[in-house]
Amino acid sequence: MITWRAGVVVSLGSTWPGAAEVTVELESPVGDLTAGAPVRALAYPALVGSPEIGDRVLLNVSALARGLGTGGYALVVARPDAPPTDPPDGPGHLVKARYTPLQAMVLGVDDQESPHHEVLRDADDLADVPVVVADLHSALPAIVAGARFASARAGHEPPRIAYVMTDGGALPAWFSRTVAGLRSAGWLAACVTTGQAFGGDLEAVTVHTGLLAAHHVVGADLVVVAQGPGNLGTGTRWGFSGVAAGEAINAAATLGGRPVASLRVSGADARERHLGVSHHSLTAYGRVALAAADVVVPVFEPGDLAGLGHRIDDQVAALSARHRLVRVPAGPDLLSALAGSPVRLSTMGRGLDADPASFLAAAAAGVHAVDLLS
């Protein structure tokens, strides 16, 4: 289940909040890599301390051995000769990544020891806050860019946006350079990690308490819900971690929010099932989401994306039986707004130029969410 290797840190790389890249020389071969080969590794200092050159580290190289994603990283599990000092005594008894060797104890926003416990103990209402739901982490910066574009167009200040991260992808929020970049740029007010996910500005037990914390604690004008990076898929209808987007729609509606469904769209994916609207969106919103939502359908201007727009219209027609289809223009102005993102836009290895429809569809959901605020 786990492929273990050890090695020595030979250089330090980039860092961002919660994460540090290092280069490690392997002590023994793995896959096509020989002993002594350098590999990129990622450490989470809050879990394992901050590696230094010369440190011997224990690595999980399972993804490298199988040629999987995770950004091409080995993951630092421990520095056996230099473990971090004990954490300071403090409140908090929520355990995340539970009963794994790296389970982490955190202070939950809804924990009895939290200063926000009194606020959240009986909280039960989102008071019509728009909640934009997407099935891929890559939609997050595009949704935020669309929301900011719509606010600027209306002459308003940018909305205060919270990101509620579910545990379908990466569990540590620290893995996401997108979240770090959006927080640094002031585009996100907070990240709330829910379920088994951890490392956000606030920790919550469920998506429900995460949404309530975003409203009652962060004071968000709108909320984005999506899994962390590194989604899990099996090429089947139901075996995809993003199916939980439908459950997030239900949670937002149950709590009195305004659920907004962001469609996963592509004009460049080589897989037929993901061209136009991905079958995953149609499953999540058409089968899993039992509550009604505003499903945002991007309207492309005549040109290269016109044919794709017709395909999308045909694909989403069945969703109108339960949801309200909202058509939002996705033209050059919105594309320009996306180009101004402070973080790199990338989905399935494709950037804005390679697959503009993907990001325009997500941005259109952000536009609609802001329209609901007026």
Q: Distance between the terminal alpha carbons, to the nearest Å?
A: 51 Å
Low-confidence runs of at least 5 consecutive residues: none
Which CATH class of the largest domain is shown?
A: Alpha Beta
Number of strand elements: 17
Mean pLDDT: 94
**Helix and strand element order:** EEEHEHEEEHEHEHEEHEHEEEHEHEHH
How many helix segments? 11
- Helical percentage: 25-40%
Number of domains: 2
β-strand amount: 15-25%
From the helix content, strand content and strand pairing, which structural class follows?
Answer: alpha/beta
Instruction: Give the C-alpha Rg.
Output: 21 Å
What is the CATH third-level topology name of the largest domain? Answer: Rossmann fold
* Global morphology: globular
Strand order of the largest sheet: 11-10-9-12-8-13-16-17
CATH architecture of the largest domain: 3-Layer(aba) Sandwich
